[in-house]
Amino acid sequence: MSDGFRFIEEKSVAALAHLADRGELFDVIFIDGNHRFDDAFVDFTVSAKVCPVDGFIIPDDMWMPAIRLTVAFIRSNRKDFEEIKTPVTNIAAFRRIGGDAREWRHYVVFFGCRRYHDLRLAIGSLTADSLRRGARAVVRLPRP
Fold it and tell me: How many C-alpha atoms does 66 have within 13 Å on its Cβ side?
């Protein structure tokens, strides 16, 4: 491989953590790892630590709901990244435009979570009140 590329045979989270610990930075990071939400989310989070200002993070497989949810989080919560439009529909591209200046408690509801969260709160309070009165109920929530 050329000097600009490196193949690391290790789980992405471990490899990225080691690279971050050594202070290494990468101009382009292409994420195409495990496609579960928690893994994709962690891959982005750790990748952000090794992505300098003006660097790019590119999540792959936008057809998958877990990847779309991760991208929705980035769009809503990571203002240190701007989305770059691309004609390729199966990827998203984000350019780092600054440092992560979020407060420790920062969180913006993203994707369909607001509707789902509000519905759970409403049903939760109704259910708690009903249970206090001795009612029994089963509530099935739609997926967000």
Answer: 14
